[in-house]
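re: ur question from yesterday

yeah so i grabbed the chain u mentioned. its 150 aa long if i counted rite. heres the sequnce exactly as i have it in my notes:
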Amino acid sequence: MNGWILAAAVVLATGVGATVWGVASGPLRRRAAAQNLSTALACPVLLLLAQGFDRPAYVDLALVLALLGPAGTLVFARLLADELADDPPHARGPTWTAAALGAAVVVAVGVATGPGRALVKLLVVGALLVGGNLVASRALAGGMRGARDD
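ran it thru and got these structure tokens back, copy pasting raw so excuse formatting
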């Protein structure tokens, strides 16, 4: 076991485990925020595993997850807008922590990868991961108020 796999195991055990518990129990506001955070934490795990196992295909999985995870959260925010309006989720701390973790993992794996096509793909994954997580969290917290008025 190398350091990349160990880091992935730590993030998987602590972060993703907590978000799975949050999705499975509690009020709607916590479940919606935990769903968004679970994809924001699973993506860095895939990047760490890609580096640890030397499997570039895992980066492709992280790219798909970074693209579809926030899109799924936006669908939930739209469909549950009325229910979340009364008690919107406020997960500012966990959201910024997940964004910082994603950025740190992208930087660390990018340094290990070196210049080339793989680095460009990694930077795209990082931009989608951080940007998508922040936009989706904002939408859950009530940023889509105009969408409910339709």
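noticed a couple things. Residues 28-148 form one domain. also The chain has a mean pLDDT of 87.
anyway ttyl
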